[in-house]
Amino acid sequence: MSTNTLYLGYHVSSAGGYMAMGKRAAALGANTFAFFTRNPRGGAAARVEEGDAAAFCAWASERGFGPLVAHSPYTLNPCSDKPLVRDFAKRAFTEDLERMELTPGCFYNFHPGSHVGQGTEAGIQMIAELLNTVLMPDMHTTVLLETMAGKGSEIGGRFEELREIIDRVELKDKLGVCLDTCHIWDGGYDIVSDPDAVFAEFDRVIGLDKLRAVHLNNSLNALDSHKDRHAKILDGKLPPEALARIVCHEALAGRPIILETPNDDAGYAAEIAWLREQWAARHG
């Protein structure tokens, strides 16, 4: 993975398997992509053909694709107050990490969870306990904690909360962070006025070596709103030029950048093309 390459993609439909996903992404100008390992609202994981995954890995390597950023279902909540929900989190996590071994070197991203009134300390402990159960020394996937907007009882609205989770996990080398630009803006980190200060704060609290992927989203809401409403790159409260500066920031060099904006294929293709133009203008 080259630090001189812009790895840019979007959230593709997982229908048809890995080759189908890869070709859909490439057709829109992407050289990485994200996908849900199962229905985002839960349920059983989609069947995966080992031959399809192997063919995709060879195809993606030939085309210089960056690592994929798989996403857990939104219903995965390891710090729920309901045992059945926690049990689903453990089962889904285990199954999904087994699947991820078919595409080694990629990322599995998840929302840390909501403590639903049990308290931040209890939530952090339960998340760490799950990770200590499902992470294995010989796995070839890096699990990513996503930065959150801090709405309700969400864990991960502050960098310090993610740091506390990481500190309690034994296999720290299997963990990283996915930074969501909408989430941290809604969470109170001003990436428009002073992105350097935000990345410096991330480095101080967590370490930039743990920043492994980015969800690039604009926001419908003002700074520190704690609402988490994504917007298109050119439409939200963050000036598009600010998002372009983030894409080109040296702190993110070589990281896969995934669009989760509310778009159709034409919209994603246009955003990818615009961001590549901004990148080219800054890198010659």
In a few lines, what is going on in this structure?
The protein is built from 9 helices and 10 strands.
Topology:
Layout: E1 8-10, H1 18-27, E2 34-36, H2 50-62, E3 69-71, H3 83-100, E4 107-110, H4 120-134, E5 142-146, H5 159-167, E6 175-180, H6 181-186, H7 195-205, E7 211-216, E8 218-219, E9 230-231, H8 240-247, E10 257-259, H9 265-283
Parallel strand pairs: 1-10, 2-3, 3-4, 4-5, 5-6, 6-7, 7-10
Antiparallel strand pairs: 8-9
Helix pairs in contact: 4-5
Task: Outline the structure in words.
By secondary structure, the chain is an alpha/beta fold. It has 9 helices and 10 strands. It has helices spanning 18-27, 50-62, 83-100, 120-134, 159-167, 181-186, 195-205, 240-247, 265-283; strands at 8-10, 34-36, 69-71, 107-110, 142-146, 175-180, 211-216, 218-219, 230-231, 257-259. The strands form 2 sheets. The protein has an 8-stranded parallel sheet with strand order 1-10-7-6-5-4-3-2. Strand 2 (34-36), helix 2 and strand 3 form a beta-alpha-beta unit. The protein is globular.
The gross shape turns out to be: globular
The poorly predicted ranges are: none
Query: H/E series, N to C?
Result: EHEHEHEHEHEHHEEEHEH
Question: Could you tell me the number of beta strands?
Answer: 10
Approximately how much helix is present in the residues? 25-40%
Task: State the secondary-structure class.
Answer: alpha/beta
User: Taking Cα atoms only, what radius of gyration do you get, to the nearest Å?
Assistant: 18 Å
Distance between the termini: 20 Å
Largest sheet, spatial ordering of strands: 1-10-7-6-5-4-3-2
- Oligomeric organization of the protein chains: single chain
**Mean pLDDT across residues:** 95
Give the DSSP E fraction (strand runs of 2 or more residues): 5-15%
| Structure annotation, total helices | 9
Reported for the largest beta sheet, the result is: 8 strands, parallel
